Amino acid sequence: MVGQWREEDDEEVVIRCYDDRRDRSEMECVEKSCEIGHDQTSLFTDTLGDPICRIRNTPLFTMLVAEVGNKLVGSIQGSVKPVEFDDKSVKVGYVLGLRVVPPYRRRGIGSTLVRKLEEWFVTHNADYAYMATQKDNEASLGLFVGTLGYVVFRNPAILVNPVNPYRSLKLPSDIGIRKLKVKEAVSWYRKHVASTADFFPGDINRILRNKLSIGTWVANYNNDDNIRSWAILSVWDSSKVFKLRVGKAPLSYMLLTKVCNFLGRFLTFIGLTALPDLFTPFGFYFLYGVHAEGPLRGKLVKALCEHVHNMAASNDGGACKLVVVEVDGESNVHDDSLMRCVPHWKMLSCEDDTWCIKPLKCTEKMTSFSEITKVSSRSLFVDPRDV
């Protein structure tokens, strides 16, 4: 049960690979003891019985656990994949889900887990390791940036929009939206996005063909004969992998949620969206590969997002309560940036996500590494398998 660990300083910490048959039940305890959140808010993840569900769809993945005696006291997950970064084809290792149960923190277990995972990355020819956290997560930044040599290189924003199951949004009549076949979508991304985006996945074909990828849609104006403006995005259904639940939140949020649940159907009559009940398990649609070109692209992006909202509201039985997208943050805040085009609620969104990166191949000359970590004019392709 949660909280049953007892710190024993004289016991050796063993780092080993996760064994599903042996470790699954204990991993549930580790996860429950390490909920994500702050003083006022916490977020629980239900992995639906599969502790490695969030990395299982990547080409190469592993999960390491820290064991003291016969008890699991920590874990870390990682995956390796090919991407385009700094105009080169490289392999990157993604660090995810670092957990150490409270009684065993500040004993070096977290840093040991990361270093062991980095060794696994190197054995699989990864050029870089990267991870994501939040600007105000002092413990995480202190470990990765302060101790392990990672460098902050992007500050994207996570934009969240609630799904109202009682209301279908009306799309503009002058915009046409069509679903692309996978082969066509792959071609479109490689032609228009690969050359402009960092972390564009080399296995985009594999992502788009994944059973969790619902499809790819493109939008353009009906009277735009020269197709000067267009927008594209793909949709990933996270609810088939894991579900989230808010464990605690400010009293004002809890009261507002209860009121919205009670008045939800009536709010639609006056054109308002109800705040979803996030205190019960929920999934979300993640929008990836969001890209647009042309002088009137903003309205097209908005229409595509609203199209996905309607899909979630009508086709998913209420399992997906949010539509989520991660886009460039402070580095690209222009009048027509994606942040301004994507519908979202500020109270649900997070504009202080922080990506950190570290070179792993010490034999290479890394004199230019500080340059590529500066603000980039290139966009950021967020792989849905990293969510």
Automatic annotation (TrEMBL):
Output the CDD domains linked to this UniProt entry: NAT_SF (cd04301)
Tell me which stretches of the chain form a coiled coil.
none
Q: Name one Pfam family in it.
A: Acetyltransf_1
The transmembrane segments are: none
From which domain of life does this come?
Eukaryota
Instruction: Give every N-acetyltransferase domain span.
Output: 13-172
Q: What are this entry's molecular-function GO terms?
A: acyltransferase activity, transferring groups other than amino-acyl groups
Q: Which InterPro entries match?
A: Acyl_CoA_acyltransferase, GNAT_dom, Plant_NAT
Write down what this protein is called.
Answer: N-acetyltransferase domain-containing protein
**From what organism does this protein derive?**
Thlaspi arvense
